[in-house]
Amino acid sequence: MEDFNVNVFKAFADDWALVTAGVRGDYNTMTIGWGGLGTLWGRPAATVYVKKNRYTHEFMEKNDWFTVSFFPAAYKKALGYLGSHSGRDEDKVAAAGLTPVYPDQAVTFREASVTLLCRKIYAHDFDVSAVPADVAEDYYQAEPPHTIYIGEVVNIQKIE
Ligand SMILES: Cc1cc2nc3c(=O)[nH]c(=O)nc-3n(C[C@H](O)[C@H](O)[C@H](O)COP(=O)(O)O)c2cc1C
Predict the structure, then answer these.
(1) pLDDT tens-digit map of 139-153
(2) For residues 113, 100, 37 and 154, what is the CA-based torsion angle, rounded to 10 degrees?
């Protein structure tokens, strides 16, 4: 963890990441542009927000582990693909040209530069009545809320 040196603001908003949940043969992944890294309950923690109508949401619900992976700039097109197609409809990982790998009880990708292995420690939907009015109007008028997932970061895998 001492070696982890990512600009969190840029990493999610500008460069994007993948959140992946499930196990070999039964997983799904999607691109995220929102997320947080920090400390919660005395543990290193990663927070992601997965809208309830994503296929990935089903996997986040039924699994205790997920990964958050960051990629070199060369894979931005692949991340764009994974963020605009659903695993419900196709093998989008193959279409995006990524190679799944299976560390511990989770799934990440050989092409990732850094992967955070997270044990799910909290999950709850946004209370739309408690978010700012402009956010509710922009994001939740016609769409379901995001679920907030917080994972304890138990391992960071860095591939040079
Ligand atoms: C750059 C980018 C960032 C995204 N960030 C998020 C996010 O933080 N949370 C979310 O629920 N969806 C986000 N999405 C949308 C999902 O990645 C997209 O709906 C995806 O196709 C869902 O795939 P699935 O149905 O296989 O889960 C983002 C999409 C893109 C392109």
Answers:
(1) 999 999 999 999 999
(2) -100
Domains in the chain: ranges and CATH: 8-158 (2.30.110.10)
Check pocket membership of 155 for ligand 1, CB cut-off 6 A. no
Nearest CA to ligand 1 atom 13: 32
- Closest among 95, 20, 24 to 54, alpha carbons compared: 20
> Taking all residues of the chain, what is their mean pLDDT, rounded to a whole number?
95
Amino acid at 2: E
Rounded CA separation 32/36 (Å): 11
Q: What is the CA radius of gyration of the chain?
A: 15
Ligand 1 pocket test, pick from 32, 79, 89 with the greatest ligand atom count within 8 Å of Cβ, gives 32
For residue 65, what are its two tokens? Answer: 């582990």
Q: Which residues of the chain register pLDDT less than 70?
A: 159-160
pTM over 0.90: yes
Kindly report, residue by residue over 106-147, the tens digit of the pLDDT: 999 999 999 999 999 999 999 999 999 999 999 999 999 999
